[in-house]
User: Fold this.
Amino acid sequence: MARLVGGLLFTAITQFVIFLRVAESIYPGYSISGNYISDLGVGPAAPVFNTSIILLGLAVAVSSYLIRPIFRDRLLPPLLFLAGLGAAGVGVFPEGSPYGLHTLMSFIVFFFAGVSALYTSRLVSMPLNIFSAVMGVLTLAALSLFAAGVYLGLGPGGMERLIAYPPLMWGVAFAGYLMGLKPEK
Assistant:
């Protein structure tokens, strides 16, 4: 089961990173420092971006259920589920959606992806536990700075990437860890 979950996460994250770059490339005048990631969900790149992030979110949500017997931990599955729900929600509710749903979904994915990485540091061995903690703390610190309007000279888009990239990189590492676990007998 661990290899299946790892493969699902690896595939989902990898396709998202690839199609994020494709979406940035086909959006005229898009600036990674000046534009938010979510701007890709309402312009000419919307079909690519929204489909990709919805697939990512669904895969993370499914993985949250499948991961239960691997770690036998009660907190990790709901943390991952919420991160997946937030990711899918970003694609379902693009910028401009009513009731602030897009902003809420963005916060949910950013916050719970960071918390998932940080929490997982308790469940995995060295050196992934250190990497997980660092990526989780970096995500949450960048999210706090972003919310305060502090962009560290990166612009809003650059700062948002400082929130989004660490949990994606952690997710790839975590997926590799899962794929490398020996099957239980």
